[in-house]
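Dear support,

Our group has been running a series of protein-ligand predictions, and this particular one with phenylalanine is the one our PI (initials K.S.) wants archived with full inputs and outputs. We had some confusion internally about which version of the output was final, so please treat the block below as the authoritative record. The input we submitted was:
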Amino acid sequence: MFMTDGLYQPSLTRQPIMSATAMPIEEFVKQLDELAHRATTAFEVATDADSLDEARVQFLGAKRGEFKSLQKNMGAVPGESKKEAGMKLNAVKKTIQLAFEDAQVRLLGGAGEAAKDPEFDPTLPGHSFRVGKLHPITQTINELKDIMGRLGFTPAEGPEVEDDHHNFEALNIPRSHPARDPLDNFYLSVAQSQNNDSTLADNPLLMRSQTSTVQIRVMENTEPPIRIVSLGRVYRPDETDATHYPMFHQIEGLMVDQNVTLADLKTVLHLFATNYLGNDVPVRIRPSFFPFTEPSVEADYFWNGKWVEFGGAGIVDPNVLRSVGYDPEKYSGFAFGLGIERLCMIRHQITDIRYLFTNDVRFLRQF
Ligand code: PHE
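Confirmed final output from the archive:
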């Protein structure tokens, strides 16, 4: 007999397939038990990936593994015992397989194929996935929309490029009003000079300076009762500093129905502030002026020991109701407009509005 490196073994060293002599079931079971014992022991004492693999080849090898060889003795078991022999064979196979898997988990941490890689170091920290998220302003918008939704206010939208009519005229802001000053607005003069349409001269385009434009757009197309909120960008050529930016976001609320009063406005603002900031947040109103509300108020809420400016509000001016074809004798309403950045900054203690727009991920990741 010549030596081999283990790849080939003369069949005489193992029981050949289909031995001529019959094998009693007792003998078959005994051989299987003995094999199960040796195999499970071998897996239990394996100390590393190599010795485990050696044992695997010896007992579970697909070609010349010991289990495979014993399986071939099935042929020698008498017919009436075949069923019992088959069941025993399956049970032993399962036992050996489980012992192997246990050892695999013990030695390789159960990492399967990757764990067999000699370069694989299960003690190194893994690669974490960086899950993106919504911008803090978008998160705030979603939350505010949610809160107002629970109070029965439906979201509404309007364009950011607006015309004079919706940004000023229909809101009862007269031609002479300083809010229309070209230095305080982003008029789209280039677009206009290229367009000889005479209606544009009367009704120039601009980046909207307030979301109150949406009040008009909704009322033009809807009959009362109305309860809407509009959240979006507005533009003003302000000098940039910690609290000003030439683009920011507003939330506009509008409710029109019969007998709507300042008490309704105050209740909604109170519920709104309390829902957004938590606990019971007191709200106060002070007299103010806006061309499109009468009376007009400035609303504040009490937060961290002081009164904080909320935004402008008031009872919709009868002239505005008339401009959209409502009967001011029949309907009344309230409107409010609040800065979203300010709400977001207060809640998260952000000290400079510019953090919100410079897109530094070290800042954004914190939300
Ligand atoms: N549009 C006003 C502003 O931008 C706020 C406001 C909205 C006031 C609705 C009254 C009613 O300052």
